[in-house]
Amino acid sequence: MTSLGPFKQAPHKLLVIPGPIEVADEVLFANAHPSMSHVSPDFIPVFGDCIRMIREVLFTKGAQPFLISGSGTLGWDQVAANLVEPGENALVLNTGYFGDSFTDCLETYGASVTQLKAPIGGTVPFDTLAAALQDKRYKVLTFTHVDTSTGVLSDAARIAETVRRVSPDTLVVMDAVCSVASEEIKFDEWDLDVVLTASQKGLGAPPGLSILLASPRAVGVWEKRKSKGVREGSYYASWSKWLPIMKAYESGSAAYFATPPVNLIYAFHASLSLITAKPSASPDPETPLPSVNERFALHRTASQRIKSAAKGLGLKQLPLQDAVAANGMTALYFPEGVTAGDLLPRLGAKDVVVAGGLLGSIKEKYFRIGHMGVSVVDSRRGDVEKIISALGDSLREIKDAKAKAAK
């Protein structure tokens, strides 16, 4: 990596939506790498390292990564195009907006989709899941690990255990766009088949990279499809096109199908080096970087601080129980009589940018705070304290303003 030297990113408002998130100076600096050929001998090992390091983040030895230019949504297309043939059954556990969206994607490719919908702020009961798996054979089961619209965290390990026990041939597909690197994920230990994510959330890089890891079981299902002569349903999302590219770069050579986002790969490499605690990535040789597991603990601590402060201010969470509340974000109902127009501009005036609601039926009733990546890992930044202070001050200002208006 080129020396960071005196580089510091320009002053800006603190971005604490549930993605994109703040990126470290090292990552932004890497994104400004001079333009480079995607088949350059200098770039090839950078891409190969990214493939290897993302396995470390997800605790897998044998999963096959796919790093493709695109948003996290491209991961849905990869699943639907490569693993599900038209007419086959898919079961979607729906905990918010993104369950509906994944359903739409699967149906676009011809899957027959059944949804199990959780109440707002809740998860699907495991006996309901088991009963559904006994009722019908499903090619895939999908769920959103952290639904960004609700801040609900699903129990991935237990979902996978239930599927393996009741319907062992069903592929377990986890949409982890808002959870990778902020929530614990043990790919091999939990026996997952697909984890899909993107660069701009817990992975702490700019947007634009779709990241998917597929188990040997999932790759085998795709290979069986090919052997039957059934083509993938997509050109750009086809694993036939991308698997040779990934294998080539990991083995130390280049191959071409479509141009990878070279500068973004450099940024992603810098972020993964920080996340996996590579000594060469540490900005301070005297201070070791936290391990992946230590990063999870830091996310839990920051989450508890923000949620506790919000509760002290009289704010109620969307998740119905603490056990299903994400560690990388918090979704909070507005207090009675307070709207997004009251709160969000005041936070913005204090240089704190949060997100409004996303789930259609309650969109105007709540807001969302992201707290992941460098904002919680580097306590010297003071981001968590800034969020809590700005939220408290803004709510007091609103209360005072409404009291004056009522006189």
From TrEMBL:
Annotated family: Belongs to the class-V pyridoxal-phosphate-dependent aminotransferase family.
Modified sites of kind N6-(pyridoxal phosphate)lysine: 201
Gene3D superfamilies: Aspartate Aminotransferase, domain 1 (3.90.1150.10), Type I PLP-dependent aspartate aminotransferase-like (Major domain) (3.40.640.10)
Name by which UniProt lists this protein: alanine--glyoxylate transaminase
GO MF annotations in UniProt: alanine-glyoxylate transaminase activity; L-serine-pyruvate transaminase activity
Cofactor dependency: pyridoxal 5'-phosphate
Pfam families given in the database record: Aminotran_5
Domain of life of the native organism: Eukaryota
Start and end residues of each Aminotransferase class V domain: 29-276
SUPFAM superfamilies reported for this sequence: PLP-dependent transferases
GO cellular component: peroxisome
Entry keyword set: Aminotransferase, Pyridoxal phosphate, Transferase
Transmembrane segments: none
One biological process term in Gene Ontology: glycine biosynthetic process, by transamination of glyoxylate
EC number(s) on file: 2.6.1.44
Binding residue positions for substrate: 368
